[in-house]
Specification:
Layout (H helix, E strand, L loop, with lengths): L2 E5 L2 E4 L4 E8 L7 E7 L6 E6 L6 E3 L7 E6 L4 E6 L8 E8 L13 E2 L3 E6 L1
């Protein structure tokens, strides 16, 4: 049974930082493309950051480029998202997701498995 469990969310003031983690189990983690998505109330789920299986290639949405860093530890089956210079518009539920093969990696329908999410709230 595949499980993705996010942690690290919380409330922070604008300009602050958070680190999200996603612990994966039940899958060959090192073979999967991993991503972070977010969804704010009343909005569609959007791709934030992608990291390919080896960890050598990453991709970011324009809205977070230069502020967020995605990384992975394949020995620990864990995905991370370092979020700096947070803005109120970053407020959302953040989800990690795993794709065996992602043709369009920022699109949710490419992903096989999802976590339950962790809430990030940024106050201005």
């Amino acid at each position: 049974q595949v499980q993705l469990v996010e942690s690290g969310g919380g409330s922070v003031q604008a300009g602050g930082s958070l680190i999200l983690s996603c612990a994966a189990s039940g899958l060959k983690y090192s073979s999967y493309t991993m991503s972070w998505f977010r969804q704010a109330p009343g909005k569609e789920r959007e791709g934030v950051a992608v990291i390919y299986p080896s960890g050598g290639r990453t991709y970011y949405a324009d809205s977070v480029k230069g502020r967020f860093t995605i990384s992975r530890d394949n020995a620990k089956n864990t995905l991370y998202l370092q979020m700096n210079s947070l803005k109120s518009e970053d407020t959302a539920m953040y989800f990690c997701a795993a794709a065996a093969f992602a043709i369009q990696p920022l699109r949710p329908n490419n992903y096989n498995y999802w976590g339950q999410g962790t809430q990030v709230t940024v106050s201005s």
